[in-house]
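Here is one chain, start to finish.
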Amino acid sequence: MKTTLRFAGLCVAVFLLASFGIAFHRRALDRVQQENTLLRQQIDELMAHSEQLAAEKARLSIALAAGRTTTDTPVPQAPSREALRLRGEVGRLRLQDRESEQARCEQMQAAQAKLTNAEVELARLTMAHSEKLVSSAELTNAWFTVELLRAEARGDTAGAAQVRLQQAEEELARATELRSQSLISQTEYDQAVRKVESLRAGGR
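Its structure:
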């Protein structure tokens, strides 16, 4: 009978984890796609502007060539400051994109290496919690750890940020309750508040 209850508890935990994971994944994927689209639009706009300046330069060169006398010698045309600035900006954005992608790949590999152990630990704590051997706070922290690693393993920076914020908000709610009972200091409570505010500001 006890084994059956354990198995049922594990099934419920797995179902809940899967449901939460799917919801996180959908929201995070939409946000990442929006960020990528915005970055590519900025690059396209800069490239289009650069091409317009190049076309204007070519038109002016033709006009100057048509107006030269037979004794005129060709005058080399130097790129304008605006064209050089735009080229530099495009190069900077491309370099930033490559560096960001490399850092994301390294983070994904690190998260993938840790994820299996975290999932095993979550399953163990789920069983222990069903038998009232661990607290709800321990189980919640383990769940957030798994969700964060899953987001990082997918390269989902927006999803990982959302998980961090939700965990900080959960910790603040717990700190608020403990502070009302004078079980933690005002300094500890203030730290929880600042952590939530910092994560919220970073997500804007």
